[in-house]
């Protein structure tokens, strides 16, 4: 009597039909290999195939068509062997692997951490991760796809590899984690893909991967599988960075929009041209407007759809690594703008991701940002908070970024930000503070500083919220530095006045010292100040061409010598004539003008002086580093003050905002003796009028303004001079 032919493990007809259409939540429970009924049942979905054979190291077993393109075969034995699938369509036979024979690539610990919102390396398990598996029939290369979509009825991955037909690559649900997962053999770096999500209303929606590490070049919207092969060369930079406190070091930041600094350059071209330029001018850091992928170029990167994907407009993610590495090896730090406060409503991206308000807050009185027509993240949801916290860690660790400047913090802190009465919802205590956003910012900052020694977290925060740079264990937000928007607004408003009127606005230029030590500040003249009809920095200055360029020199020298670090947007270092536009390069032609070239030359020298003069940066965040000499000379439009450091000579700064020189101006000084004029913005080389003090002044024992000595000095028009006691 011949042995009984083993039967396949039975599956209900309706389930087979759902599997065949890619709408079953657990395709791995049907497809792939399953032990039982006297053998190993293998089911595979191969619509329109003429023949299917299961191949193992020992045998070949023909499969039969079962239903709706599903083929089934029973292998002998009681354990699952390594196998492949031979499929014939017409006269063509191909050997393929089976996505449904692999165990989950997202482990139980990972799923637990995702549920708890504590997976700080989230990008290593979600998204698209290239993996390699050994086997008796040979090594398998492929990509593990995983996505969080807890309210989906089914999820499929579509892409180049399946002709954008997702039924053959339905993903499995990993239970209450909300994660869907599938390893697809043969899919490697460079493949384009999206997720197809079956929502509760029965609609299939194609969505870009929230965790994608690469994208198509906009306006195309597919995600791209990325595998980094970059070898870093900045070990010395990272070691040195971790050994000191960057918040108290010299910090002179050049803010850059990569697409318009010199239009058309790639990351690798920028690596050489931008690095050479920044090193020549002496800036310590560059700050990049958001480099994460964004579909709309005029948003400048502030409406992000690909939080884990560097913009493909300028090259591969490894090309961005090369840019950052090149800057580091040249001694320049890299700050990146980061936008966790809101995201755009593009239907193919994060918005309504699984058919529900998933990443955004479901209450429109909280979850929509009226200023920008965007959604606000649901900061109180574990998985959403995890998505953002891990994203900060991602940029700091995977791209060696030295600081994140967090955009629009005020919009996150206040529930009534840009909202009229009745258009916002109070917190549980009846207040306007967004308690969930506060907790998110505190967690992000604490996690970032723990993961990446020597980095900085910087807040663009435009209100008087207390403790932005206070430690989280003191109930602060935990940032390292905060943009001083008050200084910026008051200073630019003052500088716009005609010099004859500035005496009536003197309080605006001195007010910043009232609160200068309430936080640890950066003084920003950023992209926001040279767009939307505001004009360039040069264009804001009153007067003729010479007076405008002189005004820019005066402003920048005042900024560099005021307590706090400094940031300057590209183009303003050479007094660009026109306001900035993201659609074209800077006005590099303007450097043919000697006056504008003089401004650039002054910035170069000013940065060099700043970096070698500890008094200008060592005690930026403490009152010990600053003293007024005279803050009340409104009639002459003059400020005079002392900058001090630790065990270094002081620097006396005299700023003249008037359009005329002041001859024989009596200046109080901290001590007698000879004081060298170590910097003068009015020298001929900078395009100035040449008014100065022949290199030094002699202080006499004549008390003035409570100081023991004073000197008669020449103060140049629209000019700044710096004096320091001669040594030896």
TrEMBL record:
SMART domains the UniProt entry points to: Aamy
Biological process according to GO: glycogen biosynthetic process
Reaction catalysed by this enzyme: Transfers a segment of a (1->4)-alpha-D-glucan chain to a primary hydroxy group in a similar glucan chain
EC number: 2.4.1.18
Boundaries of every Glycosyl hydrolase family 13 catalytic domain copy: 255-596
SUPFAM superfamilies membership: (Trans)glycosidases (SSF51445), E set domains (SSF81296), Glycosyl hydrolase domain (SSF51011)
Keywords: Carbohydrate metabolism, Glycogen biosynthesis, Glycogen metabolism, Glycosyltransferase, Transferase
Pfam families: Alpha-amylase, Alpha-amylase_C, CBM_48, GlgB_N
Role: Catalyzes the formation of the alpha-1,6-glucosidic linkages in glycogen by scission of a 1,4-alpha-linked oligosaccharide from growing alpha-1,4-glucan chains and the subsequent attachment of the oligosaccharide to the alpha-1,6 position.
Descriptive protein name: 1,4-alpha-glucan branching enzyme GlgB
UniProt organism field: Cellulomonas gilvus (strain ATCC 13127 / NRRL B-14078)
Gene: glgB
